[in-house]
Amino acid sequence: MRATIDQSSTSRTTPRAEFPAPLRRAWFVWSVAAACYFVALFHRSSLAVAADAATERFSTSPATLSVLSALQLAIYLALQIPAGVLADRIGPRRMITAATLALAVGSAVFAVSASLLGGLAGRALIGFGDAFLFTNVLRLAAHWFSADRFGRVAAVTGLVGGIGQLAATAPLSTSLRMLGWVGTFSGAAALTAVLALSAWTMLRDRPDGPAGHAERAEDTAGAELHERVSASLKAVVTRSGTWHSFWVHFVMMGQFVAVTVLWGPPWLIESQGYDPAAASSWVLLCVGGFLAGSWLCGQYVAGRPRRRQRFAFVLSMLVAVTWLVLIGWPGVLPAALLTVLLLIIGVAGGSAMLAFDGVRAANATHRSGLAVGTANMGGFTAAVLIQLAVGGILRLAADLPAGPSYRLAYLPVLALVVLGTLGQLRQLRLMRREQPAASTTSG
């Protein structure tokens, strides 16, 4: 009898190529794709650091400026299922190239725009390009790496994204001071365009040689069945492993995005009394926790189904306690406690990569793009809900001091974390209930 439903799902639906691609070439191809994901995270996070400059350039208020972040996240969320479908149908090489070009054009538009409408157009293009990258990078990895390596590759991909977020903190602030708005974002656009050209010339959807033929055979079999998108989606969303991964990502990534991209800097400045430079340093600490979480999961958790499930559930409960402390603490948080809380939030964000290890194990290889896209919706569904709820409560509590208003506004974050943790628990029970039937069938 197998230990977990994940293991039985993998044995049924994830055939391994008899002759795997040489690891050196696989890592080279992945590194080109991961570099595109690096710049996507840079562009995604850049607005939080450039918020002060953006309010001045667009002659608007911080509340109005938050529409840019909300729009970008909403586009990202809405395109996750299409991103997964296109990753499976068109192939990662074309999608990664097109998405990186969209980032470049969006950054160029953002650089030259002097109006809020132009800023919205630029961030919309950035959200569009960003939406297609992570799913396609992992779809590429599903072709180039064996199933038992996939979880570690997903974790390292998250690590690369975290470094991209780091590049959008102090380095971006320095560039804005030295090169100005137009120079900074035009330069980022030019470098991103060069990377898009590199992706087109260097990426291949699958390995050449015997391993490539094995993947083509699987894809051809799927094509001969004329499997419709609706049938693929049904096959993905009816698996408990898919929904477990959705809720893991919902809890861990949603609250991390809330702090690093949306409400962390204003909370630190207005409620905790830090200046903008110090607030950026605290956010940097949170991103450092993200890097640590990605590394930790890649080394010790990914590829081990039972350990992954236990780790994700315990960490989700710890995240709930973290937000309970953050909301319930009267007054300004002590620096030592704030350090611990932000590190936990960051480590959980990095550990969200475990969702893709789980969803890959639970679904067939030729549906891995759609499966990853479905799981990836979890965290960004939470992020959009947090954006709307926190912003709405802050507007209603505008007459209160900053400390109490933010404590009230963060209550929905705690509620969503608890909801996601309960969702994980429910899916774990369903997976264990399905396990005997799966083992009987396989035996």
Secondary structure topology:
Blueprint: H1 5-13, H2 23-49, H3 51-57, H4 62-78, H5 80-89, H6 92-112, H7 116-144, H8 147-167, H9 170-202, H10 209-224, H11 229-237, H12 240-270, H13 276-300, H14 305-328, H15 335-351, H16 354-362, H17 368-396, H18 402-409, H19 411-442
Helix pairs in contact: 1-16, 1-19, 2-6, 2-7, 2-8, 2-9, 2-12, 4-7, 4-17, 5-7, 5-17, 6-7, 6-9, 7-8, 7-17, 8-13, 8-16, 12-13, 12-15, 12-16, 12-17, 12-19, 13-15, 14-15, 14-19, 16-17, 17-18, 17-19
InterPro entries: MFS (IPR011701), MFS_dom (IPR020846), MFS_trans_sf (IPR036259), MFSD1 (IPR052187)
Keywords: Lysosome, Membrane, Transmembrane, Transmembrane helix, Transport
Family: Belongs to the major facilitator superfamily.
Which features would summarize this protein structure in a list?
19 helices; disordered N terminus; mainly alpha; 2 domains; single chain; 443 residues; Growth Hormone, Chain: A; disordered C terminus; 84% helix; globular
